[in-house]
Amino acid sequence: MPTALVLGASRGLGLEFARQYLAEGWTVYATHRSEPDRVRLRDLGAHTLKLDVLDADDLAGLAWQLESERLDVVVINAGVYGPRSSHLQQPPATEDFDLVMRTNVLAPMRLVPRLAPMLGPARGTLAFVSSRMGSISAAGASHGMLYRVSKAAENMVAKLAHVELSPLGVRVLALHPGWVRTDMGGPNAEVDVPASIAGMRRVIADATAYPAGGFYDYRGQSLAW
Ligand SMILES: NC(=O)c1ccc[n+]([C@@H]2O[C@H](COP(=O)([O-])OP(=O)(O)OC[C@H]3O[C@@H](n4cnc5c(N)ncnc54)[C@H](OP(=O)(O)O)[C@@H]3O)[C@@H](O)[C@H]2O)c1
């Protein structure tokens, strides 16, 4: 059975990625930050790994623990939204900027080279859980400015990962999960978590319909960068 690594699997979309891959019999490595989350993921059947993506030692430890693994799918899912109201007239505080950019951009940049060696042998898929809000072409409002800027930058990380990793046979996708009812998306969001994850898993699984280097939503629709 294939193996997946889900980064940021404690709740929301990451937890459901882990659940659905486990339900299909995959081997799942799932990362968490707290002990209760470790226990919950272990009880689901996942191999658990402690990872705060802001912690350089954790990142090094993750790569070391997975060194001899062959990963079919890696999902870079951990993310934060930051201030709800930021827009051009209301620039973000430095600490908000640092948290959002370090989590959504710096961490993926550090993860790609560490995880590429485990994806190459399986000719696996690296999926970034990005957002439609990171589309520069589709930008039509400035609320959530910091988050939008961070997801646009994360999309560039995905695109460059594609440039670097496609010669090794690794497929790289940026995915928009929809506006989903999680802690981040809130209770009024349009899509429920299982539907979003089932859709993104379909895109990840079908290399013919959704080739490398693409930006797709959970229904498989191509998005403009
Ligand atoms: N929900 C939506 O509508 C929506 C739409 C577009 C894109 N997205 C993207 O989808 C991804 C998941 O979002 P979600 O809705 O599931 O959000 P969520 O419910 O707020 O969950 C966020 C996840 O990221 C983890 N995380 C945050 N900072 C971390 C860090 N420093 N180190 C390790 N893990 C960290 C959290 O772990 P802890 O539990 O330890 O905090 C949690 O597992 C994000 O990248 C988000 O930008 C979501």
Detailed description of the structure:
With 225 residues, this protein is an alpha/beta fold. The protein has one domain (3-217): NAD(P)-binding Rossmann-like Domain (Rossmann fold), CATH 3.40.50. The protein contains 6 helices and 7 strands, in the order E-H-E-H-E-H-E-H-E-H-E-H-E. Strands 3-2-1-4-5-6-7 form a 7-stranded parallel sheet, sandwiched between helices. Helix 1 (12-23) crosses helix 6. It is globular and about 50 Å long. The model has no long low-confidence stretch (mean pLDDT 97). NADP nicotinamide-adenine-dinucleotide phosphate binds at residues 8, 10-14, 33-34, 51-54, 77-80, 103, 129, 131, 176-177, 179-180, 182-185, 189.
